[in-house]
Amino acid sequence: MKKLLLAATAAALLAGTWLAPAQAEYLKEHRGGTIRLLARSAAGTLDPHINYTDQGWQMYQPIYDGLVAFRKAEGMDGFTIVPDLAEALPQVSNDGKTFTFKLRKGIKFSSGQDLGVKDVVASFQRIFKVSGPTSGTFYAGIVGADKCLADTKSCTLEGGVVGDEAAGTITINITKPDAELLYKLALPHAVVLPADTPAEDMGSKPIPSTGAYMISAFDPNKGMTVSRNPNFKQWSEEAQPDGYPDVVQYDFGLSEEAAVTAIQNGEADWMFDALPSDRLGELGSKSMDQLHISPLSAWWYAPLNNRLAPFDNEKARQAVAYAIDRNTLVKLFGGKVLASPVCQVLPPDFPGHEDYCPFTKNPGAKWSAPDLDKAKQLVEDSGTKGQKVTIIVEDTAISRSIGVYLQSVLTSIGYVADVKPISSNIQFTYIQNTNNKVQMSVTQWYKDYPAASDFLNILFSCASFREGSDASINIAGFCDKEIDAKMQKALDLGVTDQKAADKMWAEIDRQVTDKAPAVGLFTPKRLDFVSKRLGNFKFNRQFNWMITQSWVQ
Amino acid sequence: MSNVAVAAPRKTRGPWAVAFAKLATDGAAMASLAVFLLIVLACLSAPLYAKWAGVDPFASTLDAVIQIDGADVPVMEQSTEGLGLGYTPLGPTWRLGNYFLGADSQGRDVMARMLYGGLSSLLISGAATIFTLILGTAAGLIAGYFGGVTDTVLSRFLDILWAFPIYLLAISLSIVTIAHGITIGPIQIESGSLWLPVIIIGIVYVPYVARPIRGQVLALRKSEFVLAAINLGVPGWRILWRDILPNVTTTLIVFVPLMMALNMLTESALSFLSIGVQPPAASWGTIIQDGQALLYTRPLVALVPGLAIAVSVMALNVFGDGLRDALDPRSKVRLGRD
């Protein structure tokens, strides 16, 4: 009996029936008010098919919807895919190459237009028509995508995305099975917009939305106002829950220092940018209850150019990996509470992650201490001692500090090193372009979706390297045919057996780490500082803090 | 023997001696010179200070521990209260040789970096001043003396250069050259070299010197002694070198401290923006940049180099004013002083 009760409880929890009344109660009590957010600057274009920033993606969550969505839940549950505008998860047929979705009825855009099949089909075409940043990667597997990529303006995705108005279904055909397709469909780049949305970057013009909220005003130099969508009726608490505040006011332009003070004074509720390092001690002791520390699926790393001396030599790369004191880097980032040392590519708690660290004093699962003797020996063996190395870092306090530290490490193991901080606006593209002959750099990678391939395949596959391009995300220029073939196998295996595929990814992670195309530095954590009045803070692992699931009254 | 006394020939002092004697009586100028020389001497002692203090001002020393009154004190102190977030660098100890001004965010001795930073700032501003004066004088002399097409081309070029806001031009040049340096034929200046800011700063201020020099040369070109030399068939370069250049020397001397002050400000601004002196090398501008992230907990890291720049620039400007008063006879009238 007890067992039965437990099972029933678990089932109820899974179904979310326990959450619903609680949220309804909370909504009665806390609904309303204006939540004020701060950021140093706007996140770029408002167009969800184009914007590719953490800041933009976080804000889109209560505004736009796709056929499927990441569950609006705390922690790792946020990595689960749930149906959103589709009634249910798709029916998969044709050996995993056809996905059929049935569209929910009765949903309206904030403009008052009814959501229909034609909007879904047009939205998929629009991803290519506006040359979305992931059209050539995430969505390139859709039938007809090759033609759309070649001629964006006349994109029809014929045979790729097929709508049936009468049946209310959308069928997506892909050229080969893709275990990660649903993740890709749940990203903001695949949200559904009205069919008549112009096929151009909408910049500062808000596009009507289906979510609980809509963008009602936007000035990239001042701020953004997000208010309730008058046509919204909650259809799925997991996918698009109703929110607490009536208005989200996102103001731009305040420095981080000023933003902290504004939150302390109760003039704002949250800030997007990282807290200034010299305020951490004070906030960590005096405002503990206003701070939230959450794990991130992210990787700070130092790509080493595998095609340029001295790092075209594997031993030279391994020497750097052995020499770097990750504890020092963690210290520079704010301490152990805010970051953890790493050696490997996949972040902790991520699919395929198995602790592994060969580049430490006592090689094994975890990093313990740098091994300078081994590093110096490897530099000697590689015959690269005395060579010049330039490290390109972002012109921010933390990146500059890391660059200066790495410069002293390289000097200590026998290189002649210098550091160049360059503007954050251009550093990421600068280090990707082989014409700039960057030997070593410091950068970060934040997951797009929870799959090992999003790190390993994107950052280290041969296909991700493009000579002379600003969009060559394989910054290290690493290309190992054997590892590449294995990654392809793991991707294929994921379609039928994700667990076995993750095992394979763990092995690939070890192999890539051993070759040291880049040196893992640390995994950061997110530190959110909120106002005293803000309640119900919930952190989703996919899109960070769920803004409208917090209340301010 | 005659009782008539023969008047001894009156001993007159040369113009330079008069000028220096006059300068020596200018209390403000001399005090400024003393302050500036003191700063120069202190900066020159940077390597000695670092050796004496036993610190490396360019290497990260986050784990360093120093002794204060017999107690071990870490240069980077982790917060132990609450969540234990962040590290705070050691504050000023006010003990020379032992983190006198405290540590920066890399655990480095700020005092040692201040001295090395001053050395960089002085070297760059000094070298840039010489570079500007050489180029500016050459351009001014050639344009003013030869006139015609030469003058038109040179003057328009200087006008174009001057039309750009100084800092915008300097920042643009720095950004272009910061990653790969400059290569002109066999001459290569690497991106981390201190010569890079010297050349950039030197170039942007050329019109500042060349235009007044050109004006002076235009006037001198019509003076009788120059016309006589021309009529006697003396070559142009010789007239420029022997007759005109000596007549603009006082202007050039007055320019030295003023240009140096301007260059020091420009260098600091570029280094503050990460496009001047490159880390881990120090200049007062880079130390202010480092201190910017510590304004709340360790404001001295940014304030001290700011103060050093202000004092140096003020000393140079006051001395420059004194020098101008001493070398320019008209200044007496202009300033209404005896």
UniProtKB/TrEMBL annotation, chain A:
Residues 80-464 form the Solute-binding protein family domain. Residues 1-24 form the signal peptide. One of its GO terms (biological process) is peptide transport. Transmembrane segments: none annotated. Keywords: Signal, Transport. It is found in: Periplasm. Pfam families: SBP_bac_5. GO terms for cellular component: ATP-binding cassette (ABC) transporter complex; outer membrane-bounded periplasmic space. Its main location: periplasm. InterPro entries: Peptide/Ni-bd, SBP_5, SBP_5_CS, SBP_5_dom. One of its GO terms (molecular function) is peptide transmembrane transporter activity. Belongs to the bacterial solute-binding protein 5 family. This is ABC transporter substrate-binding protein.
